[in-house]
Amino acid sequence: xxxxxxxxxxxxxxxxxxxxxxxxxxxxxxxxxxxxxxxxxxxxxxxxxxxxxxxxxxxxxxxxxxxxxxxxxxxxxxxxxxxxxxxxxxxxxxxxxxxxxxxxxxxxxxxxxxxxxxxxxxxxxxxxxxxxxxxxxxxxxxxxxxxxxxxxxxxxxxxxxxxxxxxxxxxxxxxxxxxxxxxxxxxxxxxxxxxxxxxxxxxxxxxxxxxxxxxxxxxxxxxxxxxxxxxxxxxxxxxxxxxxxxxxxxxxxxxxxxxxxxxxxxxxxxxxxxxxxxxxxxxxxxxxxxxxxxxxxxxxxxxxxxxxxxxxxxxxxxxxxxxxxxxxxxxxxxxxxxxxxxxxxxxxxxxxxxxxxxxxxxxxxxxxxxxxxxxxxxxxxxxxxxxxxxxxxxxxxxxxxxxxxxxxxxxxxxxxxxxxxxxxxxxxxxxxxxxxxxxxxxxxxxxxxxxxxxxxxxxxxxxxxxxxxxxxxxxxxxxxxxxxxxxxxxxxxxxxxxxxxxxxxxxxxxxxxxxxxxxxxxxxxxxxxxxxxxxxxxxxxxxxxxxxxxx
Length: 551
Hints:
Distance between the termini: 44 Å
Helix content: 55-70%
Mean pLDDT: 81
Strand content: 5-15%
Low-confidence stretches: none
Number of helices: 20
Radius of gyration: 33 Å
Number of strands: 15
Largest sheet: 5 strands, antiparallel
């Protein structure tokens, strides 16, 4: 995979110059990129003594929308990236300029094939907000007379993102192949996974469906507000929702303590229910995605990034929490091993000891002093030390919980997160043992067994017929046998060479005894040549064996 177009090369040049300005020009040199000659003419603008993670964040901000969004997505993967880098990535902001009203108007009119004047009763040309992928304007619905928020995708952003992602794929492959220290991160896999996530986020019709799903799971009298979606306006480029009048959380720090506490508790409990009960949750609940309405309720905005958990994953998470609360280190270690993927053999006993240490540190504290975010960060640190990788969905859960706790404590620093979440966790755990739930699982198992018995006879019959006609093949996928294969090949080659060498010596001896001319020093020249060649080959073989220490 290489850079095939002028667009790619021009963009790569810009990226290389930005990296060099922040002290990463050596990476461009090491990767032998076609723009490496530029590195000599670019001087670093940032002191290389500046924290490396801070410089990475600065580079990402300079590189533009694609990289900012990827950085924000990667900030949800504490299982992959170091904690200091995660903290820097969470600072990434969509600091971009606005697009003109004419461009917004053109997108809307092309998307709906209708003049803007007929689409809305009125449309405010001044944007409410501008982000890396979109821009939001206020308008009035033509028939319902409701104030709406119109989210419009930036023109050309898809092409820009796809160009950047194509370049990133090449760079990730080169870094993975040329920098051994980076192979642990599997950069090609990370880029591929984040490509799917980013392309999904640019599809506003998908976000509209996410909002509808989330709204269907929220009770009508809930303290959480989710805006209505006007589906007739919902397309990949446009999303129209009800305009929620409110203000950012950061502007409510002067509210009475009880009101701030109520908002913090509502947000925390909502996150717990979304994750553990619904399995569908807002994946990026930072303060910028929340507003406080005029009736003092919490409104969750921007549902472009969501997380999903299957019923099995929710059960695993519940039993994991229960094992931690019960201080059952063995069960906790078993749950960790069942949830994660090991990159190497795991010392289960040491893992259990490390988990016990975390429980001793945190669970000995009064509940109100426990910081869930710190606990989860330490847990992820243990997983990294044992080369255990969490599934992406579980990593997003951890990041979402860390973020929502930080947001809740911003409103009310004394929030007792564990006490507020405990009743919901206890209720959900007890539900696992309710008659209805047990009966449901039994029915599912019986149904699965019934489906199995329907197909089992035919499957067994097919296998027996193949055995009868000698058509059964068994495939083996051998791993880590290359060194053994090379050793065997080397041994057989030397054995063959030894046999040939012995044959040459025997043949030369027979020729010597015949006395056949021409003669050399009174001996047959052909026999002497055979001895000489045999001596050279034998000497070379001995030296090779001694150098390789294979004796």
